[in-house]
């Protein structure tokens, strides 16, 4: 039922289908396939099940830096690969450039919009999932300070922090949410040392729970939290609860892998369509994770309260503000200094 609901949402695009023979590919971000985050979710929940079901030679490519994005997409396009899934919003300009040069191929970009007739853009309501884990953090914190670490200082990343702060303030109006950004460029997503250092700053400032939206650099955040008794971390994109058992409070998952599988599946079925898809809690595009690895950290009472918040967001009873759709303004305090 879980995957079925998301697959229904993935088919809700108004443009006419484009029919091509599937010969798919994926271009990961520079953080690498096994980043315990965004890329790895695409591999484990998208690439692996696609190969198991269809058995095709799906090509994977891992660029060393964003400077290689255009060249790797061009290489895949020259091979006639289609659909080509580009993992992450940092691919936006590269997809726009290459897709316009290969109009007969299909491209899908995760977390960004490229307005071309052969591009499928899949977005997620990260602010909804972040609200939920912000509430989890506030319920866990014994004092009034929690933290957020972003990989790159961009509104798209601040959106995670703003949703997190809204959820925390929903539980405790007196809580302080401290924010730190690792870098002003995309290198921040791979800077584990930078993640560690920013988390250490927050811990020194009294943060008891730290949420990371930092790609592979989040591993540094989790390491720092694990070294400090009474400090917890919240993972992002994929389920990272297993990384430091006893430290990882929960994870805000984006079902990017299922979305990637969906675009390849559509190509196989001849139903692939360009356009924009937006997936939130209602569409099972985002969620929080409770499993055997963090069960002992969250009481049954807290679980019920969090799931009630989740249901109220879906029903519209709780309205979560999208930072980027609100002129880059957060309705609650997100303290960056």
Which keywords apply here?
12 strands, 2 domains, six-stranded parallel sheet, 10 helices, six-stranded mixed sheet, alpha/beta, Rossmann fold, disordered N terminus, 337 residues
Summarize the structure in words.
With 337 residues, this protein is an alpha/beta fold. Helices cover 39% and strands 18% of the residues. The chain contains ten helices and twelve strands. The strands form two sheets. It has a six-stranded parallel β-sheet, sandwiched between helices. Strand 3 (84-87), helix 4 (92-101) and strand 4 form a beta-alpha-beta unit. One of its GO terms (cellular component) is plasma membrane. It comes from Reinekea marinisedimentorum.
Work out the count of structural domains: 2
Helical percent range? 25-40%
Q: In what order do the strands lie side by side in the largest sheet?
A: 2-1-3-4-5-11
> CATH class of the largest domain, anyone?
Alpha Beta
Q: Quaternary state, please?
A: single chain
Work out the radius of gyration: 19 Å
Provide the succession of SSEs: HEHEHEHEEHEHEHEHEEHEEH
CATH fold naming of the largest domain:
Rossmann fold
The N- and C-terminal alpha carbons lie at a distance of 44 Å
Task: Write the CATH homologous superfamily of the largest domain.
Answer: Response regulator
Average predicted confidence as pLDDT: 92
Class derived from helix and strand content: alpha/beta
């Amino acid at each position: 039922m879980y995957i079925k609901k998301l697959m229904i949402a993935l088919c809700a695009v108004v443009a006419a289908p484009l029919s091509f023979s599937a010969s798919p590919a994926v271009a990961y971000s520079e953080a690498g396939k096994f980043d315990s985050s965004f890329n790895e979710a695409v591999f484990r929940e998208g690439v692996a099940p696609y190969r198991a079901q269809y058995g095709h030679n799906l090509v994977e490519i891992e660029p060393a830096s964003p400077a290689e994005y255009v060249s790797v997409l061009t290489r895949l396009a020259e091979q006639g690969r289609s659909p080509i899934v580009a993992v992450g919003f940092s691919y936006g300009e590269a997809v726009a450039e290459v897709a316009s040069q290969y109009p007969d191929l299909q491209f899908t970009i995760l977390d960004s919009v490229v307005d071309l007739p052969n591009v499928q853009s899949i977005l997620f309501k990260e602010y909804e999932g972040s609200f939920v884990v912000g509430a989890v953090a506030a319920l866990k914190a014994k004092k009034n300070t929690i933290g957020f670490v972003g990989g790159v200082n961009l509104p798209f990343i601040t959106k995670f922090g703003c949703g997190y702060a809204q959820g925390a303030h929903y539980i405790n109006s007196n809580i302080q949410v401290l924010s730190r950004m690792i870098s002003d460029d995309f290198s921040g997503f791979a800077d584990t040392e930078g993640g560690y250092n920013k988390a250490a700053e927050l811990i020194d400032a009294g943060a008891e729970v730290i949420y990371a939206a930092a790609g592979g650099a989040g591993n540094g955040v989790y390491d720092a939290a694990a070294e400090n008794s009474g400090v917890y971390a919240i993972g992002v994109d994929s389920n990272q609860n297993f990384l430091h058992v006893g430290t990882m409070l929960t994870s805000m998952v984006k079902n990017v892998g299922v979305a990637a599988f969906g675009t390849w599946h559509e190509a196989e079925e001849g139903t692939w369509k360009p356009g924009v898809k937006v997936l939130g809690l209602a569409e099972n595009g985002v969620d929080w994770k409770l499993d055997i690895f963090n069960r002992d950290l969250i009481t049954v009472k807290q679980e019920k309260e969090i799931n009630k918040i989740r249901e109220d967001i879906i029903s519209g009873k709780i309205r979560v503000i999208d930072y980027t759709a609100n002129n880059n303004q957060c309705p609650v305090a997100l303290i960056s200094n």
